[in-house]
Amino acid sequence: VQLQACGGGLVQAGGSLRLSCAASGLTFSVYNMGWFRQAPGKEREFVARISSVTYYADSVKGRFTISRDNAKNTVYLQMNSLKPEDTAVYYCAAQRAGTSTYRYWGQGTLVTVSS
Which of 39, 51, 59, 111 is buried deepest, with most CB atoms within 10 A? Predict the structure, then answer.
């Protein structure tokens, strides 16, 4: 199983980025997909999840949108109104439906938001 995240980069505060995560080696449609992030010196934190519904951390609600394309085995994270505190390495992860553990993780993509 591979999860390949991309789309990170440097953006000014108030800007937008779209992250993508392409999955292979698993039956994508039976997995919930999540995005997490880890800022320098901080613990990894939940950002968003998509199953049949979507869930967001309070810190990104209204600014970030998670979506998926099962035909392309890809999950997306549209990030708008970015803030410097959104700077982190963003990871995608796969959680088999009905379980509590994210079993597969991508390698991460760095998002840097300048003030």
Answer: 111
